[in-house]
Amino acid sequence: MENKMISLMMRRFSAFLIIIIGLSSAASAQLKVDITKGTVEPLPIALPHFASASDAVTAAGNLSQISNNMIEVITANLENTGLFRAIDQNAFLAQIGPQDRRPNFALNWRPLGAQAMVTGRISMLPDGNVRVEFRLWDVLSEIQMDGMSYKTPVSNWRRIAHVISDRIYSRLTGEEGYFDTRIVYISETGDPLNRIKKLAIMDQDGANQRNLTDGNYLVMTPRFSPNRQEITYLSYFNDKPRVYLFNILTNRFEMLGEFDKNMTFSPRFSPDGNHVIFSLSDEGNSDIYLMDLRTRRMTRMTDHPGIDTSPSYSPRGDKIIFNSDRGGSQQLYVMNVNGTGIKRISYGNGRYATPVWSPRGDLVAFTKISEGKFRIGVMRVDGTGERLLTDAYQDEGPTWSPNGRVLIFFRKAPYNNDGSGGESTLWSVDLTGFNERQIKTTHEASDPAWSPPLPLRKGR
Hints:
Structural class: mainly beta
Number of helices: 4
Shape: globular
CATH class of the largest domain: Mainly Beta
Number of domains: 2
Number of strands: 32
Low-confidence stretches: 1-28
Mean pLDDT: 88
């Protein structure tokens, strides 16, 4: 049953049909959110419901309900960034009708303080698909900034909402959006001494949560390929660690290697997706190894009595960051992709773990252990500019959004005196450290990893 559900989900994504129609836009529009500041006053944006010429009933509901649902998703996406403030619909002086091509900005929208506005229409097509159109407006200049039209199966309304959110975010910030993405993580149930851990996946906003494994075997440290819909993760079968590769589009698992009694940790992809790097323990000593996914040939990258773990590639693939206690305490080191030029970059108080390079290449995120806490931080790739973004009891395992502006991590609550507590949950925080929020999951969750943007299939 679970495989059937996963297969249906994959078919729904792969069956996505999109027709893009260029709608007029003006390159002169200057409205833009500056996200390089430490704090940003949220941009007021009006998001009225998309108009529909009919109230046709579909398997996903009538068009009016789908319109309402899409605006709810778009609103949540934009507001969760901390960069936008959706104007309360109860304050609207007008709605957008099916025949309205251009809002009356001066009369209905500028009095509300709106600086940006999104209008849209949804209509039923003879073939059973729906057409969704949207336009982004600069309210003050009354200029259209962007506009697209999508033809898609009605069941894809939520994904279309994410795609539109990405367009709005990108046009107003100058950065790529990250809403049409997914999160893979470890779903945890059971008591602490008999934990059941399943590989699970969901949309970045917590919707469409599904298990990918049945929980019969322990799974750990899933990681997305940076350019493919593939996941690598660690699993234990008969107490032997195995590294697996799972293709989301084909729903196929493939074992990359079984390592007898040796422990493997944190497999990660290279930027081109052709290699996996991980740490392997032999007689208590952990070093970093590289596996060519085409030939399965393994290459040892470090050879040191210290414990080397948690390797992560730079976006260009020319450097690797990892943590090691070779200097006496757990710190961050950078080396060339061939294992040469190893250099320590962390020198703050405390210990450092789980480093991961930003997709932008300018920062590395990490878990810092100090003063009895685990906190998420970032620093420049040369070790300067260290900043801690969270300050809870136990935050760890950061993963970057595809645009390098947001981090997701897992938070462990402290145990109470009676043994209760200790729940593990997923959270996100942006680079300012001010916009922190919980991502709801069906069960406790840990070890998140963010996908690259989902591929779109264009219709002819």
